[in-house]
Amino acid sequence: MEETHSNIRVSVVEDNHFIRMALEQILINSEGYDVMAVYGSGEEAVDKMPGEIPDVVLMDINMGKMSGIEAVRIIKEKCPSIKFMMCTVYEDDEKIFDALAAGASGYILKKTKPAKLVAAIRDLYDGGAPMSGQIASRVVASFRKKEESKGAALLEGLSAREHEILE
Description:
Blueprint: E1 8-13, H1 17-28, E2 33-39, H2 42-48, E3 56-59, H3 68-78, E4 83-88, H4 93-102, E5 104-109, H5 114-125, H6 133-156, H7 160-166
Parallel strand pairs: 1-2, 1-3, 3-4, 4-5
Helix pairs in contact: 2-3, 3-4
């Protein structure tokens, strides 16, 4: 007996009308995806999304009064099953880590080609943590820096005798 898979229910939160419509069209024209809702602000998403519960949300970061990061934090608390993919132009470490800490599981750039975007949504839905290549590199580099600084901090706390023994 063949197993049937239902379409992935996706919502889009993006304040730029043209980008919002482009993302919606990409999803409408891709097999296996249903657009549940499109929102023009974080506030609107926070207000309406808990009643709709999509599988995946494409979330912009920089939007009006409420950032996408703040919206993810609030919605994730109410609806922990929703998977969030940040879809943004921001590549800086602070935004990446703030978004992941808020509850996002994926982070892609708006310049991502449509085929990679829909594949990333599928990957997120299936339990992955998709990130644009540039973003993944920044995450890895940040962890390396963090581990190096931990090692340096440990060495700084050693006594002269402990340093002598290590030598």
